Amino acid sequence: MLLIKNAKVVVGEYLEALSLLEKDLTIITDILINDEGFIEKIEKNINSHTNNNTIQIIDANFNYVIPGIIDPHTHMRDPGLSYKEDFLSGSKACAKGGITTFLDMPNTIPNTVTENILNEKRENSKNRSYVDYGFHFGGSRKDNSIEISKVKNSVASTKLFLNMSTGDMLVENIETIENIFKNSKLISVHAEDEKVDNAIEFADKFKTPLYLCHLSKRTEVESLRKAKQNGIKIYGEVTPHHLFLSQEDRNDSTTKELLLRMKPELKSKDDNLALWEALKDGTIDTIGTDHAPHNLEEKMKSPTFGIPGVENSLELMLLGVKENRITLYKLIELMCKNPAKIFNISKKGEIKIGNYGDLVIIDTDNVYTINNKDVISKCGWTPYHSMKTGGTVISTILRGNIVYNNNSFYDIKGKEIKYL
Ligand code: DOR
Ligand code: ZN
Ligand code: ZN
């Protein structure tokens, strides 16, 4: 059993009548997680001596305790590209960043496009993750809709690339795309510009729920807003880099010009603003990192698309809270609650009795400067070097197990998640 004392928990937000500022409403409470890893009690002054079980106690010291972050979009490179990242290094980076669940993308080698390959990936990842994880399946150029039907209840979604990107998984044939939509429970799509509108049309035609990955432009967000208004079952994701960085950042140095390359590319400051607005008004549903590590040598040689992100996503988004762009309540919705809802992840995303004890203790007063030398990811660099955070992850707790605490890492207890 794990007892967390003196946790500051966000319970809602209210409109402060006079200033019209949205503020977080919080309570101070203790949280008890049972030996099965579930939250058993949320109340003040839980007695640690009431039964014979040994109770481990951790004092949150009136710091915020929020649900573990669910990152719906990561490329852990394992198997096949594990010189860039592997399950152990990538999940360790997650633990440091407060991520207790990540969903892994299918552009590993071989691409995750058959049931057999998925099962091999499952075997390969067993007992090699600090946090929990799930898999997206891949839609393939060589129509694999039969494979999709076989696995759709045990994966997060079918990931479909409608633009060319790292991993050569582009699907262009209309009939194939239609078959993939028809046979999937949920489609996650890499779509940019007009491809966003194409994807929305397919979703509407086949009534397949659609998750738009990494929206980066004002016009794309407007397409999403309109589709939602038209009653289409659709969700949108943004990355921290498309919120905090713009194409202007690439002009700082030739190194940055090469490092800050990804698909979709960084956009204008006006696009940054449109994305922040869309977070506030509920058009955007989730924050996903699109953690896509490549080695420095690869990045420096020629344009290589993808940047790492899991270590910094929560602490950067806390900067958004600090700067009053969003409330902490909203952050929790975007990074915990909504990913669990959209991908039907069972018993995660909220601090409530019966849910898994996946929790992060954060210190929002302790801000620090992100540095390449602290990077856990195998790639060894971060696009946020020299940027300030909005706080620090103190501890990451997975189903009642402390997996990260003050720069130390503990048990490797991550398991594949279950879906509702
Ligand atoms: O920049 C990107 N990198 N965009 C993608 O869509 C894939 C990713 C990768 O796997 O490197
Ligand atoms: Zn993508
Ligand atoms: Zn991606």
What does this structure look like?
28% of the residues lie in helices and 22% in strands. By secondary structure, it is of the alpha/beta class. The strands form 4 sheets. It has a 6-stranded parallel sheet. It has a 5-stranded antiparallel sheet with strand order 5-15-16-17-18, covered by helices on one side. Strand 11, helix 5 and strand 12 (210-212) form a beta-alpha-beta unit. The radius of gyration is 21 Å and the shape is globular. The relative contact order is 0.17. The mean pLDDT is 96. The protein binds (4S)-2,6-dioxohexahydropyrimidine-4-carboxylic acid and zinc ion (ZN) (2 copies).
Any chance you could write out the topology, listing elements then pairs?
Elements: E1 2-15, E2 22-33, E3 39-43, E4 56-59, E5 64-67, E6 69-74, H1 87-97, E7 99-104, H2 115-125, E8 132-135, E9 137-138, H3 145-151, E10 158-161, H4 174-183, E11 187-190, H5 194-206, E12 210-212, H6 218-229, E13 234-238, H7 240-244, H8 254-259, H9 269-280, E14 286-287, H10 296-301, H11 313-322, H12 328-342, E15 359-363, E16 392-398, E17 401-405, E18 408-409
Parallel strand pairs: 1-4, 6-7, 7-8, 9-10, 10-11, 11-12, 12-13, 13-14
Antiparallel strand pairs: 1-2, 2-3, 5-15, 15-16, 16-17, 17-18
